[in-house]
Amino acid sequence: MGRNCSAKNCQKNDARNVNTSFFKFPDDVTLCAKWIEFCASPQLTAAFQASGPYGIRGRKICSDHFTRDSFRAPLNTHQGLKYGAVPRLNTNAEEYLDVEYLEDSEPTDVTPAVDTPMTKSKRKKVEKRYYVQGRHDLFEVLILEDPQ
What we know:
The protein is built from 2 helices and 5 strands. The chain has helices spanning 29-39, 42-51, and strands spanning 22-24, 60-62, 95-103, 118-133, 138-144. The chain has a 3-stranded antiparallel β-sheet with strand order 3-4-5, with no helix packed on it. Strands 1-2 form a two-stranded antiparallel ribbon. The two termini are 42 Å apart. The longest helix has 11 residues, at 29-39. The chain is an alpha+beta fold. Keywords: DNA-binding, Metal-binding, Zinc, Zinc-finger.
């Protein structure tokens, strides 16, 4: 049986995802607590509170949850994480986003429309989430579900 990623809603394991790296939780209590918080798992939290990092020995988080600047060699995740790296990318969460958009109002005659478009607010499901690492910044790109 392979190692599974402990991040919430992540289904990756090392048997099926050979190009994904898996990292064990750190022994440093403060750093480990940040990893536990990211995972949002009541079972992990309880085990950590009962026994500290020892209580979650053998648990892993996959490389998909770390920004490129978290790795020793950003192009090769198998080289390992830098000390102090904390998972930040939740690529598997199903989310909804409140979106404001402009509603086009069609003019009834040929004269230019005087009315400005009305702003409406709708809740749209986040279909895909991409993270783009720039030289100094991390950008988040959201693809929203088409309402039709």
